[in-house]
Amino acid sequence: VQLVESGGGLVQPGGSLRLSCAASGFTFSSYGMRWHRQAPGKERELVAVVNSGSDTITYADSVKGRFTISRDNAKNTVYLQMNSLKPEDTAVYYCNAIVRLRRYWGQGTQVTVSS
Predict the structure, then answer these.
(1) What string of DSSP letters covers 49-102?
(2) For the chain, which residues score pLDDT lower than 50?
(3) What pLDDT sits at residue 1?
């Protein structure tokens, strides 16, 4: 299983970024996908979850209405569209999946929201 995130960077408050996570090594369309994030000095927290068919989606309260998780099963990719970014969204963002009872993580992508 391999998960590779991309799309992070430096953005001003109020700006947008779109993160991507390319998956391989498992039947992507059969598994739910998640985005977590970890800010400096804080624990890793769940940001959003999408099930295999994209009909069940859950968000952390802190990002509801601003972030959108989606997936393209034909491209084995999950996305996180982040709008109206705030300085408190600064963190390393990780996609992850639980495959055959084991959780796999990507290497993470840094998102910094600052003026």
Answers:
(1) EE-TTSS-EEE-TTTTTTEEEEEETTTTEEEEEE-S--GGG-EEEEEEEEETTE
(2) none
(3) 96
